Amino acid sequence: MENTLMKPAWYLTDASFDWLFPERIQQMSKRHWTPVGIAKSAAAFLASEGNGKILDIGSGVGKFALIGAHYYPGSIFYGVEQRSELHHYALAAKEYTKTINSEFINGNFTQVNLADYDHFYFYNAFFENLDTRNRIDQQIDYSTSLYQYYSRYLYRELDNKPAGTRLVTFHSLEDEVPPGYRLIDASEDFLLKMWMKK
Ligand SMILES: C[S@@+](CC[C@H](N)C(=O)[O-])C[C@H]1O[C@@H](n2cnc3c(N)ncnc32)[C@H](O)[C@@H]1O
Fold first, then answer.
1. Do residues 75 and 66 make contact, with C-beta atoms less than 8 angstroms apart?
2. Which end of the chain is less crowded, N or C, counting CB atoms within 10 A of the terminal residue's CB?
3. Angstrom distance (rounded) from CA 158 to CA 117
4. Residue of 82, 86, 139, 157 best suited for mutating to test ligand 1, as the one with most atoms within 8 Å of CB
5. CATH classification of 14-197, choosing from 1.20.1740.10, 3.40.50.150, 3.90.550.10, 3.40.50.1820?
6. What is the pLDDT of residues 81-123, one digit of tens each?
C-alpha cells in the first residue's frame, strides 16, 4: 500500500510539485517557476467564468497550467514553451498527475494563434533577454531587441482581444500590457496583477 504520509500531494506545495522532476529542474524552481499560492490565485481569476481556454505564455515545465487545471477542472489550461526539454518535462508531469484538462505546445509563442485562447497568464517570460545573470540555459539566443520584439508582439495580440479578456501578469515590466486593460486586483507587493480588457 502506498504511504501517503510520506509526501504531500503534488499540487499542495512547491516542494511536492518539484518532486515530480529531476534535481536539475528542481534547482530552477525557485527563480523560474510560479509558486503554488500565486498559481492558485492567478488561476482563480482566469477561470472565474468557467469553461475558458487559458494560455500560459512561456509555460516552462507546466507548473502554472497543471496547478490551475487541478483546481479548476471546468477550464482548459494550455502552455506554450520554446524549450523542448522543458516541454518534455511538462508532458511527463501531465501524464504522471493524470491531468486531462491541460495541453502543452512546444514552440515560440509567436507561432501560436492567440485568437484561439480566451485568457492569458504571463510570468515575465521575455525577461531572460535582459537578465544576463539568471538564465535557464545557454541554448538559445538572447538580446534586448528580442525582448522588445516579443513584448510588442504580445502587446498587439492582447490589444486585439475582445472586451472581457483576462490577463494575469507576474513580475512583469508591463511592456506587453496595452492601456485597454484595466487593473482589477493585485497582490500586496504588486508583483501579481490581474487585468481585464475594457
Ligand atoms: C519565468 S519562466 C515561467 C514558467 C511558467 N510559466 C511558470 O510560471 O511556472 C518563463 C518561460 O518562458 C519561456 N519562454 C521565453 N520566451 C519564450 C517565447 N518567445 N516563446 C515560448 N516560450 C518562451 C522560457 O523558456 C521559460 O521556460
1. no
2. N
3. 11
4. 82
5. 3.40.50.150
6. 999 999 999 999 999 999 999 999 999 999 999 999 999 999 9
